[in-house]
Each structure stands twice: as structure tokens, then as C-alpha cells.
Design goal:
The chain contains three helices and two strands, in the order H-E-H-E-H. Helix 1 packs across helix 2.
């Protein structure tokens, strides 16, 4: 019954993806005044999972830079070429937090199911 706990692997990937998004948000905010800086975000979760599975099969580690991409359609562009919108980054930060809380909820539910199945 407990040979493959794919739900826990997916929750871990979801939490890691949320961390990657938070890293992108932090980098964007740190570079909000850098001329020519293009805002970035993590790749979508489905792409993230595909890359994680491919790296697991190949045995090659993933670099954080390969999990982020520049925004294709930036919200704003300042005269110096910077595409960071602090308001938009705050929204992304909240989305990443919600994603992380979802992963923690999945962990908690799985833990409760495991405890119930072993009688504790």
C-alpha cells in the first residue's frame, strides 16, 4: 500500500515550485531599479514537473536558472527598459504563498491518512 507515495512527491514538487516562484519575485523586486532588467517568473508547474522528472531519469541536476523564464508579456515597461512592476510582484508573491500552503495542506492530509491507516 505504501510502496509509492506519488502524492507526497507531487506535494514536494509543488512546494519547491512555490519556492522557485518566490525566488523569482525576490530577484525582480531587488532589480526593480536596474536599467534594462526584464522581470522573470518560474515556468508553469506542468513544465516544472516534466523537467524534474527528466532530470531524475537522466541523473543530471537542475539549475535554478533553467526553471525561470523572462516574462513574455510584461505588465509595464519603464523608459530605461525595466519591466518590473512592484504591484504585480506582490500579487505573484501571494500566489506563491497560496501554492506553498496548498502543498502543506496536501502533506497534512496525507499524514492524517497514514496515521489513520496504521491506527494512531
Amino acid at each position: 500500500m505504501f510502496h509509492s507515495l506519488d502524492i507526497l512527491r507531487m506535494a514536494q514538487a509543488l512546494a519547491t515550485h512555490a519556492g522557485t516562484r518566490q525566488t523569482a519575485v525576490a530577484q525582480n523586486i531587488a532589480n526593480a531599479d536596474t536599467p534594462g532588467y526584464r522581470s522573470r517568473d518560474a515556468v508553469p508547474f506542468t513544465d516544472y514537473m516534466e523537467r524534474m522528472n527528466a532530470s531524475r531519469q537522466n541523473g543530471s541536476p537542475l539549475r535554478l536558472e533553467s526553471l525561470m523564464r523572462p516574462d513574455a508579456n510584461p505588465v509595464t515597461r519603464s523608459p530605461d527598459g525595466n519591466t518590473v512592476s512592484l504591484e504585480h510582484e506582490m500579487m505573484r508573491g501571494v500566489e506563491a504563498r497560496h501554492q506553498h500552503e496548498l502543498a502543506l495542506g496536501i502533506y497534512s492530509s496525507a499524514r492524517d491518512l497514514l496515521r489513520a491507516s496504521i491506527g494512531r
